[in-house]
Specification:
alpha/beta, 3-stranded mixed sheet, 5 helices, 27% helix, globular
Length: 188
Amino acid sequence: MKDNLRSLFLTKRKQIDASSKILLDDKIYNNFINSEFYKNTDRILLYSSTKCEVCTEKIFKKAIADHKTVAFPLCDTENLTMDFYSIKSEKELFLSHYNILAPKLNPENLIIPNQNDVIIVPAILYNLQGFRIGYGKGYYDRYLTSHKIKSVGIIYEDYILDSTFNTLFDKNVNTIISEEREITIDKL
């Protein structure tokens, strides 16, 4: 079921026209930066979005301008784990595994998260319980299981389903933010 939903919604998401995507991304950006999650944290664990995901570039720039620490994931594909490393400029990212931008391995920039930090969790779709279908490797599920951190899913409203598709190993986010609303699932 998850594989079918993943394939269907990836195809659907790739068909969003560019002008609509810009408008949706801007609304999600505004909803996020006006949320208590953004306002009440000094550190954001972000991801570098691909062209068909909700754009995170403006979130990065705003957080840096607001003197927040921003970190991006670096995946260890051998152990299927990831860690986050802080950066100050997008120029510090390189094309890594899975064709995504990631920071260089630099122990000085390793972020050990705490419950005041916020992690933005990518997804292809979410359900109303905050469970997600991602890209199928489980990096974020494992990370959220092993770190007590506030988690936010940013996603287009049409990609929030009222259905159950989670498994035993899935970890839900605390909140989902779309262009239309903020759905609180679980307060940390």
